Amino acid sequence: MDDAAVYDARLELLDFVVEVFWDVPDESFLSNLLGDGLQLPDAEVNESLDEGFDLLRQFVADNEGRDPAAVRDELAREYTRVFVGPRPPVLAHETYYREDTDFIGEGLARVEASYGAAGWKPPEEYGEENDFIAVELAFLRYLVERQYHGAEEAFGYERVFLDEHLSAWHEAFVDDVLDETEEPLFRAAALVFDGLVEFEDELVAQMVS
Predict the structure, then answer these.
(1) Among 60, 71, 137, 152, which is 20 to 30 Å from 183 by CA?
(2) What is the DSSP secondary-structure string of 1-17?
(3) CA dihedral (142, 40, 194, 65) positive or negative
């Protein structure tokens, strides 16, 4: 796989996790997904990514030929139960999982400082605080895009963000998702998230001494 293909794969996986977790996946995303819109590698990558890809294949096979609107309705009920509530069992926010700050407390400013240092402003459409999983992964996507276009300093920003933020909470979040839902799409996205952080950590380690 050449460099361009690796970048495309990284961006596609980031887009996938963002689409699944930032809100109920919409019909156009599901139509694309069920229509083989996500190309999965045949070769092994790492344990979490491989498990996530298998679950994603299961989700696609289980819903083959179904109306995406009906699939979305089912996902909406489970997404609301798990991530929205009332009293959701999983809160997809960094500061919820950190012991060194209160939920939506001062740790939020540290997340936002990482964004500002790299010259990035969170998009407004996510409708959540800036430590929300979709916002953090949108930032990571921004850094990967910059790397793609030759900005070597973006590897350094990613190294810091992985060490100080994503790596500090992603495993606990993934464990909670796997404990709280049997829905293959949400379980697949959690495992892809886990494997993606591992992959990015190893890749950036090669680029930043």
Answers:
(1) 137
(2) --HHHHHHHHHHHHHHH
(3) positive
Q: What does the pLDDT read at residue 44?
A: 81
Q: What integer is the mean pLDDT of 138-144? A: 97
Cβ contact 141:18 at 8 Å: yes
Tokens, residue 30: 């599901």
How far is the C-alpha of 120 from the C-alpha of 122, rounded, in Å? 7
* pTM > 0.90: yes or no: yes
**pLDDT score for 157:** 97
Res. 1: pLDDT tops 70: no
- pLDDT more than 70, % of the chain: 98
For residues 205 and 209, what is the distance between their CA atoms, to the nearest angstrom?
Answer: 7
What span, in angstroms and rounded, lies between the C-alpha atoms of 41 and 62?
20
User: Which among 160, 176, 179 is positioned nearest to 168, based on CA atoms?
Assistant: 160
The rounded distance, in Å, linking the Cα atoms of 148 and 5 is: 11
